[in-house]
Amino acid sequence: MVSMVFVMMPRATVSAQRIAEVLETEPGIKDPQNPISFDTDTKGKVEFQKVGFKYPGADDYVLKDISFATKLGQTTAIVGGTGSGKSTLVNLIPRFYDITEGQILIDNTDIRSVTQYALRDKIGYIPQKAGLFSGTIESNIGYGNENADEDLLKKAARIAQLTEYIDTAENSLQTPISQGGANISGGQKQRMAIARAVAKQPEIYIFDDSFSAIDFKTDAALRKALKKETHNATVLIVAQRINTVMHAEQIIVLDNGRIAGKGTHKELMENCTVYRELALSQLSMEELSA
């Protein structure tokens, strides 16, 4: 017994030191000393003004000279090849990273001049890998809105095409969810994360490749339901599948961290080589013209 104590003590000391280092680490993203409030005359407008970004310690820019603006009630899609900077771009909006140069404005307000809480309170962020936790369907969907009642949760589930799953589940909304959603499929995980964002009722939705594990039929039904729900919000979608973004009001095409094209699907098919090649690699001309 005594010998075990002598063995464990050095290990515990090293572990305690490491925990202390983590706890004492200064956060890279900080709130301003004198934060201001968002402009209340506008709602959900996101604007990038000559934004450049490189990761801390890196020499090369991941994004350079990015400028575009969204409009309330419209969908802006971000597309491009692997490594083009799509996810990095949308991760700058909630300040998961801070930009290197330029400005990002929400409702005419620089996002670095408000608190992180105020900024993220406006946003419903849905990553590709849904962050589900051990609990129930109800607790997972309602996580972003502590005031969400059962009607709102069921509405969010219906929009996310989860109603059939919930209705056939043994305990409806009280059905257990394992840590990480280990007891449900990849598509159900993504739809539950989407339902969580809908239940939050944010002004800005960010879908970061959030439809990749969802079959085409469900994808189409979900996006149609979302369009009705988000008519008074701003939607940004990062997607690999062109059919997911074809009907977006604005499509931003990234290539090596720069904007290679900007416009509607029809405009880009005519004027943007990068977009046209990406589209034709996935769908036929007949499908792209539908």
Can you describe this structure in just a few lines?
This protein has 290 residues and is of the alpha/beta class. The chain is built from twelve helices and twelve strands. The protein has one domain: Rossmann fold (3-Layer(aba) Sandwich), CATH 3.40.50.300.
Provide an overview of this structure:
38% of the residues lie in helices and 20% in strands. The chain has 290 residues and is an alpha/beta fold. It has one domain (33-281): P-loop containing nucleotide triphosphate hydrolases (Rossmann fold), CATH 3.40.50. The strands form 3 sheets. Strands 6-9-10-3-11-12 form a 6-stranded mixed beta sheet. It has a 4-stranded antiparallel beta sheet with strand order 2-1-4-5, with no helix packed on it. The chain has a two-stranded antiparallel sheet with strand order 7-8. Helix 8 (216-229) links the parallel strand 9 and strand 10 (234-238).
Counting helices, strands and paired strands, the structural category is alpha/beta
Query: Between the first and last Cα atoms, what is the distance in angstroms?
Result: 75 Å
Shape: globular
What are the secondary-structure elements, in order, as H or E?
HEEEHEEHEEHHHEHEHEHEEHHH
CATH homologous superfamily label: P-loop containing nucleotide triphosphate hydrolases
Main sheet properties: 6 strands, mixed
Low-confidence stretches are none
Strand order of the largest sheet: 6-9-10-3-11-12
State Rg: 22 Å
Number of helices: 12
Number of separate structural domains: 1
Please give the share of residues in helix. 25-40%
Q: Overall pLDDT, averaged?
A: 89
The CATH topology label is Rossmann fold
